[in-house]
Design brief:
By secondary structure, this protein is an alpha/beta fold. It has one domain: NAD(P)-binding Rossmann-like Domain (Rossmann fold, 3-Layer(aba) Sandwich). It has seven helices and seven strands, in the order βαββαβαβαβαααβ. Strands 3-2-1-4-5-6-7 form a seven-stranded parallel β-sheet, sandwiched between helices. α4 links the parallel β5 and β6. The chain starts with 6 loop residues before the first strand and ends in an 11-residue tail after the last strand. Bound molecules: NADP nicotinamide-adenine-dinucleotide phosphate. NADP nicotinamide-adenine-dinucleotide phosphate binds next to α1 and α5.
Length: about 240
């Protein structure tokens, strides 16, 4: 696959990391189809408003888009956190985390992979998270993001013979609406996150977009099954090699 002009489907594309990636890809000359609930004024491509918690609606839209577009890339970026202490996690909230982070990604991949297989190339990227290392009060979210790492590795092996790569980008704390909502200024968790980052700052959405663009482009063609931590050094020293 060359990087001439790629067509990429991005979930959670209206804000934060998804919007920054959409803009960076568009600036590089690629075509983007973005999904989220609210359309931003400045979306740099085709945009569809959808609540991705609606399983039937997203299934139908993924299938419709896969029929309309020949996707070279997919960024599974939409996420749901539902923070709670262990004893207060409801099964409904746990299921919602697994649904938005994992089941939605599975449906999106199932829609775009047939064309990728046919053309003998494709790029699938997940937005996982540093929480896979374990973070208090984030059990459901962390389990779902760890599931993304597992999907990455299994799909990488399954799809390698078809020239399709599958990688994950695991952000550290990034200054976005999602982060600010779950970790408001002055909160204990916000302080804990920033203190845990060797660079002692939050990441910028553009710093994550750069990693996504690398994995979505032809330049990363021999890299698959990897999880890249873009986290200001958070995981270094915490994880085994
Ligand atoms: N920020 C961090 O510190 C951090 C760290 C690790 C991992 N992540 C992951 O990064 C990804 C992107 O998050 P972000 O930080 O960039 O957050 P963000 O700025 O809040 O963006 C989240 C995006 O997802 C969309 N979205 C949320 N719920 C949706 C739903 N039910 N249906 C459709 N779209 C929905 C939002 O758009 P609408 O509200 O318009 O629907 C928005 O476009 C997530 O998977 C998150 O878990 C973030």
């Amino acid at each position: 696959m060359t990087s001439s002009r790629l067509k990429v489907l991005i979930t959670g594309a209206s804000k934060g990391i998804g919007l920054a990636t959409s803009k960076m890809l568009a600036d590089q000359g690629h075509a983007v189809v973005g999904l989220a609930r609210t359309q931003p004024d400045d979306f740099p491509g085709v945009f569809h408003a959808i609540d991705l918690e609606d399983e039937a609606a997203r299934d139908s839209l993924f299938k419709q888009l896969a029929a309309e577009h020949q996707f070279d890339g997919l960024l599974n970026n939409v996420g749901l956190v539902n923070p709670a202490p262990l004893e207060e996690i409801t099964l409904k909230d746990f299921d919602a985390c697994a649904d938005v982070n994992l089941r939605c990604s599975l449906q999106a991949a199932q829609a775009v992979v047939p064309h990728m297989k046919e053309q003998g190339s494709g790029r699938i990227v997940f937005t996982s998270s540093m929480v896979v290392a374990g973070v208090p009060f984030r059990s459901s979210y962390a389990a779902a993001k760890a599931g993304m790492v597992s999907f990455t590795r299994s799909w990488a092996l399954e799809l390698a013979p078809f020239g399709i790569t599958v990688n994950a980008v695991a952000p550290g704390p990034v200054e976005t609406e999602l982060f600010n909502t779950n970790n408001p200024p002055g909160s204990e968790s916000r302080t804990r996150y920033i203190e845990g980052v060797p660079m002692k700052r939050l990441g910028l959405p553009e710093e994550l977009a750069a990693a996504n663009c690398y994995f979505l482009s032809g330049q990363s063609g021999f890299t698959t099954g990897q999880t890249l931590f873009v986290d200001g050094g958070y995981m270094t020293g915490k994880s085994a090699l």
